[in-house]
Amino acid sequence: MLNKPAALVQEREFSFTAADFQAIARRLYDLAGIRLNPSKDSMVYSRLVRRIRTLRLAGFADYLQYLARHPEEEQHFINALTTNLTSFFREAHHFDVLSQYLKQHPACKTIWCAASSTGEEPYSIAMTVAEHFGSFQVPIDIIASDIDSQVLAIATKGIYPQERVENLSQTQLKNFFHRGVAAQAGQVRVVPELAAMVKFTRINLLDQKWPLPESIDVIFCRNVMIYFDKSMQLQILERMVKRLSPDGLYIAGHSENFAHASHLVKPSGKTTYKPVTNRS
To answer: For residue 233, how many other CB atoms are within 10 A of its CB?
Structure first.
């Protein structure tokens, strides 16, 4: 909560008022369309205070002025305040759905992962595609995007702690990962052939133009819309649906529901949707 006892506020290194939080929340909404709940004030403080220290500024008011004067700081600001929770084959049923879709739609050409985070989701998509074709040479483009440049850098490297792949089968580990040795012991790296299947790019969903093909067959946009208000959800979803092929598939997160967007998409399974019409 924002109205903390004075004793708690004084323990902080820098003053952080309700007005500071509201100004930060407005700026994040303007830049990324993300709404910050007031309950996130402690998270906002802890993440932005690192930038304040790095820049050797006097406090949050000083930081907000700095942000207004230095557009290059906007990416650091977004990176600090976006949350990246992911894992390989998270919500595993979606990859079964993808596998079935590939069987039923042999002409599938493009898959877009709209919130790639540190790469586990798009690499899971790539593994599913490679397993379907029995090859790394596939006729499908996999595009993975995120607003956070730091997580994209991690995703592009494709290096993870060993515990991140503990839920994968031995066959998947053998086919898709190299185990680190010596100084890299305890880590795994995505094999180059799998990494080559995924194109990573930075996309802010609020941008006027997306560097994407006009027609996309499958969109993974999971646990992203929850950060937008209903109006923003509809705007972004409409733009995505316009790019979906007539038989396309939209895959949402477990906590997302589009009952308010029945004019755009219709349910086709557990948190999966089809476009209502072909919006070319």
So the answer is: 19
Residue type, 252: A
Phi–psi pair at 272, nearest 5 degrees: -125, 145
pLDDT digits 0-9 by tens, 208-262 = 899 999 999 999 999 889 888 889 999 999 999 999 999 999 999 888 888 889 9
- Active-site residue, selected from the candidate residues 35, 47, 51, 189: 47
Does residue 146 have an active-site annotation? yes
Q: Report in angstroms the alpha-carbon separations of 79 from 123, 176, 201.
A: 21, 29, 15
20, 146, 148, 217: which is the annotated catalytic residue?
A: 146
Cα–Cα nearest to 111, from 142, 139, 80, 151: 142
Segment 120-145, tens digit of pLDDT: 999 999 999 999 999 999 999 999 99
User: Is 141 considered catalytic here?
Assistant: no
* Whole-prediction pTM: 0.83
